[in-house]
Design goal:
about 150 residues, alpha/beta, four-stranded mixed sheet, 2 helices, disordered C terminus
């Protein structure tokens, strides 16, 4: 099997209008389609990141809370690449979205931070260019040798 790319990520929110505003107005994602499914009493909003459809935002009646802290098994967080992390953090601060301190990945030398969406889903911002002295190390098993 050959996987081409990640097609989309689905997010279930507890307050559809609040989350819709957060992802569109605060994060700047582009709505490309919205439908209300009467049989499920659920909205589905398709969102594009930089012109590429990637996120589906769903509403369901009384969804159970997602456990984020302490971290649990399963999907850990959603990450977006940004050109300037300080500019992005300043934007979030103006919108009263709390962020963690900016840190540097010791392996890549790139800076990153985390912040929550309206339901507490951890979102990471990862700067596109390295500033530090980190170096990405990838470990691969050599298929020509036996273990």
């Amino acid at each position: 099997m050959k996987l081409n790319r990640i097609h989309h990520i689905a997010i279930i929110c507890s307050d559809y209008e609040k989350s819709k505003d957060f992802y569109i107005r605060i994060l700047g994602l582009e709505p490309v389609g919205e439908v209300y499914r009467e049989s499920r009493k659920s909205y589905k909003l398709d969102l594009a990141v930089n012109g590429l459809y990637q996120i589906e935002l769903f509403s369901f009646e009384d969804p159970p809370e997602r456990v984020s802290y302490p971290e649990a098994a399963g999907l850990r967080h959603l990450a977006f690449e940004v050109d300037d992390i300080e500019e992005a953090v300043e934007h979030l601060s103006r919108e009263e979205v709390p962020t963690e301190e900016i840190r540097e990945d010791p392996f890549t030398g790139k800076r990153y931070t985390f912040f929550p969406d309206p339901d507490g889903l951890p979102i990471e911002l990862y700067e596109s260019k390295a500033r530090g002295k980190g170096s990405l190390m990838v470990h691969r098993k050599d298929s020509t040798t036996s273990s």
